[in-house]
Known about the structure:
single chain, signal, Lipoprotein
Amino acid sequence: MRTRxxxxxxxATFSLLGATVLxxxxxxxxxxxxxxxxxxxxxxPPEKVxxxxxxxxxxxxxxxxxxxxxxxxxxxxxxxxxxxxxxRLRPSAQAGGLVRLPDGPSDVPVDxxxxxxxxxxxxxxxxGAAGSGPRSVLFVGVDGMTGIDGKRLEHMVxxxxxxxxxxxxxxxxxLSMKGYDPGPLGGTLECVPAQxxxxxxxxxxADRYTTxxxxxxxxxxxxxxxxxxxxxxxxxx
Length: 237
């Protein structure tokens, strides 16, 4: 009887141990199954997601045209009368029988006063009897006026006097501008002697649309007034 009982206990013990071992293996296999896919998900490359956003194409430009956001840095230059017919200063190749010099001033020797682009346009030029020089006339003018600007003309004449004093010699003191016939373009035209030792003159004109000043080398004030009127007919159109 005792022998049979011991045998049964031994069989039950082996049976319990076998179940425990199987349960442990099953749990391990279950952990391996769960860890396997998780690791694979972290190493697999991400799938490409197709965008549904609308692509906006840039506007089609005519050939040779480019889009630019940079501000314009072009300097004012002479231009003919606009479509409204208002007279403008133009860099004529010839003015009053004189030829424009290609190596004229590279800067503005006379302050033209307040200039607002594109309403106002500054023209600086040098003229001589021949294209190779020497210079006979230094011209500075501004257009885009809305009326005769006497203060601007006075300002520009004073500027030319300062320029001549610094580069050509002393302008006689105590002299006043003398009025001359402005010609068919109207407005005012004035001149004053600019040298004591030799003939030279500073002249200026002002009308409703333009104001200009010029220094004439080797011409008296009376002669410069005639020449300036002739030049004006070629420069203001």
